[in-house]
Structure to design on (245 residues):
């Protein structure tokens, strides 16, 4: 709340727009991405037979169970989402390479733009499309989001899964209430807000998926698009050529 008050106050003084320009580690961006993370998990769970597409831990466990029990055909269901997640990480790293960044002025905005288009395309796919295609697409954008936006203020966090965030928030709460550590107050507040945002996203995803069906994923795409607009509003998508060239 103090940060929000500072932004509003500074905006009033300089006659700037009230909406902040988001940075990659901004708590505001973290909130929006966490809403999307919770939304996508609820979306795939309800519309795609109880599958969580964001977290690959379950897929690896189920892959191990299939291998141990000799269910080779079932095993094939878990390999594509894991592979899509790996590809997403590689794409995220590729955007950071100097040769790519020369043309794509903001690699993080390029990732948000790619995530937006993938979610829009998923919304056009009919219910008859195999579940594996949907989970692969969402696993891909999930890994893009995790790999690219992994800082909340100055701390590591995850916008598509909440276990680590819950651990961090609990540790910060212990430091605040037991050790009387004032520096941990901001960490506790910010991670608590992100956890609640993930929960909000799950609620929103559940309600909209039940009422709107597969196309409800476009709401998550809209949130990503808003994040794209707000993220470094003053920066271009592509590096401009200097006037001397």
């Amino acid at each position: 709340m103090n940060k929000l008050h500072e932004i509003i106050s500074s905006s009033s003084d300089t006659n700037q727009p009230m909406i902040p320009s988001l940075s990659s580690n901004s708590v505001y961006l973290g909130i929006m991405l966490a809403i999307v993370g919770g939304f996508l998990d609820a979306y795939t769970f309800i519309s795609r037979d109880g599958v969580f597409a964001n977290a690959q831990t379950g897929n690896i466990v189920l892959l191990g169970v299939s291998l141990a029990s000799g269910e080779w055909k079932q095993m094939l269901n878990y390999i594509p989402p894991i592979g899509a997640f790996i590809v997403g990480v590689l794409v995220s790293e590729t955007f950071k390479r100097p040769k790519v960044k020369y043309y794509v002025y903001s690699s993080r905005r390029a990732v948000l733009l790619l995530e937006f288009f993938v979610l829009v395309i998923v919304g056009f796919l009919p219910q008859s499309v195999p579940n594996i295609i949907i989970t692969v697409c969402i696993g891909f954008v999930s890994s893009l989001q995790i790999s690219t936006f992994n800082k909340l203020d100055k701390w590591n966090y995850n916008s598509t899964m909440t276990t680590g965030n819950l651990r961090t928030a609990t540790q910060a709460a212990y430091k605040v209430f037991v050790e009387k550590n004032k520096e941990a107050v901001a960490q506790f507040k910010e991670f608590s807000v992100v956890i609640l945002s993930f929960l909000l996203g799950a609620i929103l995803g559940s309600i909209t998926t039940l009422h709107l069906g597969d196309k409800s994923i476009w709401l998550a795409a809209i949130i990503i698009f808003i994040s794209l607009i707000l993220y470094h509003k003053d920066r271009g998508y592509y590096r401009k050529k200097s006037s001397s060239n």
Summary: The first strand starts at residue 151 and ends at 152. The CA atoms of residues 125 and 214 lie 8 Å apart. The longest helix spans residues 184-212. The beta strands are 151-152, 155-156.
